[in-house]
């Protein structure tokens, strides 16, 4: 099974999109939703805790007021003479002004009801009621467990308060029947979006304000009351869409835009790198083609050149006229130029780097500098060399290294115009050896720098356009590189970069 270039590129793009966009977006979504959900629950839990406290405070206040009413009534009646008619009117009047109670009645120490705001209750007996017994025994107010009224379908609570005579005896107990529905009405006025429930100590639901949406996520908070052994619970339903999904969609859209921009940027960078590699491959193919042509034809070109050169020499001896000599000199110059191009073509065609030897950079530079300095003096160019005391070792053919130094030094010298300075330095930088040849010549533009290593491109009237190409190929074959840095009017610096070698 074969895959063409387009299919491979599509798969690579898909993988890149998966790694740069989908994976980070998935991780972001998981982390954001997890964090936002927890945050929403925490906020809702705090709000539920506040609301349960508000409702608990209301219930406590409600019971404090009703118990206070009972205490006031007990104190008032304890100071009055036993007058059934007056007591009856007092109970009826209190019942009318306080709708929280379904009725009041007074029982003697034997539990028989002697007076009531509802005349129908006078014949009853409450001797067996726990709150009545405790009120007689402790001489303190007692609150009964909630009891369900079969006829009304509502919960009631009885508050038994002893009526203590001036002599300190307890002969009567006043009982107020408190309606839980009245408590529920007050709580309903406070309820907004929460559900409020109240439980007795047995877990029976005494009131339930409203139903929350079915299937919604809820958070509850409960508080135990002090006035009665009950529990108030506030429950809130989470608006998940607004609390979590809405902010998630906003941030997710922004995150998706950012990741997509990163994806397109990375894809553009990779495309540029692929283009650069393709251009480098094309340049390498061009050099390879040149080398192939040179290897096959250079010798064939040199043979006739040798004959032409010999015949020109013979003809120049036969025809001594000044005009003829001028033409012979021109022909000889062009033949020499052709021979120089052929020599460089032969070098490009040869596989460089086959004869590695460890050499000392300073030793080779000391051989090259005298040859170079003599020509520089003729052009009034000052040459400065700064070489370290410790030897710098590189693994390269000595002749190749010398050729690179001479070629770059010659270029630096030819770039000077009426004097100037050339500085040559060598240093060890990490595991690399770098030799810099800097001149103070006219420099080159960015456009010229891009064409420097194109075969046959030259700015010299007598140049071949192959010198830098040869230098670069030599250094590349030894694992090095050639870097040219130049600015118009600021001179040029050529950097020879080679791997450092161990001394042998």
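^ Assign residues to that structure.
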């Amino acid at each position: 099974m074969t895959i063409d270039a387009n299919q491979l590129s599509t798969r690579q793009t898909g993988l890149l999109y998966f790694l740069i966009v989908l994976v980070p977006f998935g991780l972001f979504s998981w982390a954001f939703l997890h964090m936002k959900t927890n945050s929403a629950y925490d906020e809702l839990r705090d709000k539920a805790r506040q609301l349960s406290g508000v409702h608990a405070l209301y219930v406590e206040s409600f019971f404090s007021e009703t118990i206070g009413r009972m205490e006031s009534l007990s104190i008032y009646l304890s100071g009055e003479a036993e007058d059934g008619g007056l007591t009856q009117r007092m109970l009826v009047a209190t019942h009318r002004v306080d709708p929280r109670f379904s009725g009041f009645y007074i029982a003697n120490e034997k539990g028989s009801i002697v007076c009531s705001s509802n005349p129908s209750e006078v014949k009853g007996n409450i001797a067996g009621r726990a709150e009545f017994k405790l009120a007689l025994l402790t001489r303190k107010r007692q609150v009964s467990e909630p009891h369900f009224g079969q006829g009304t379908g509502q919960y009631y609570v009885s508050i038994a308060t002893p009526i203590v005579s001036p002599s300190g005896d307890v002969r009567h107990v006043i009982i107020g029947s408190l309606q839980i529905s009245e408590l529920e009405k007050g709580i309903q006025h406070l309820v907004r979006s929460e559900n409020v429930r109240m439980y007795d100590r047995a877990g029976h639901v005494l009131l339930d304000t409203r139903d929350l949406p079915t299937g919604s996520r809820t958070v509850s908070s409960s508080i135990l009351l002090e006035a009665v052994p009950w529990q108030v619970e506030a429950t809130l339903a989470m608006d998940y869409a607004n609390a979590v999904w809405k902010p998630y969609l906003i941030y997710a859209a922004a995150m998706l835009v950012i990741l997509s921009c990163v994806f397109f940027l990375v894809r553009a960078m990779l495309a540029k790198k692929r283009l650069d590699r393709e251009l480098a491959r094309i340049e390498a193919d061009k050099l390879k083609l040149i080398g192939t042509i040179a290897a096959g034809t250079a010798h064939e070109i040199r043979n006739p050149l040798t004959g032409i050169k010999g015949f020109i020499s013979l003809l120049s001896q036969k025809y001594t006229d000044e005009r003829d000599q001028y033409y012979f000199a021109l022909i000889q110059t062009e033949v020499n130029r052709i021979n120089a191009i052929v020599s460089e073509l032969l070098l490009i065609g040869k596989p460089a780097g086959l004869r590695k030897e460890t050499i000392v950079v300073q030793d080779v530079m000391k051989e090259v500098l005298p040859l170079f300095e003599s020509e520089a003096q003729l052009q009034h160019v000052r040459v400065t060399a700064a070489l370290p005391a410790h030897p710098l070792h590189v693994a390269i053919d000595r002749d190749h290294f010398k050729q690179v130094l001479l070629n770059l030094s010659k270029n630096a010298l030819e770039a000077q115009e009426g004097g100037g300075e050339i500085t040559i330095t060598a240093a060890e930088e990490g595991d690399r050896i770098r030799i810099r040849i800097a001149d103070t010549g006219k420099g080159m533009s960015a456009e010229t720098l891009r064409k420097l290593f194109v075969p046959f491109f030259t700015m010299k009237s007598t140049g071949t356009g192959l010198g830098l190409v040869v230098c670069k190929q030599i250094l590349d074959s030894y694992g090095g590189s050639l870097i040219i840095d130049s600015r118009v009017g600021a001179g040029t610096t050529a950097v020879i970069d080679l791997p450092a070698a161990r001394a042998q």
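The first helix runs from residue 5 to 78.
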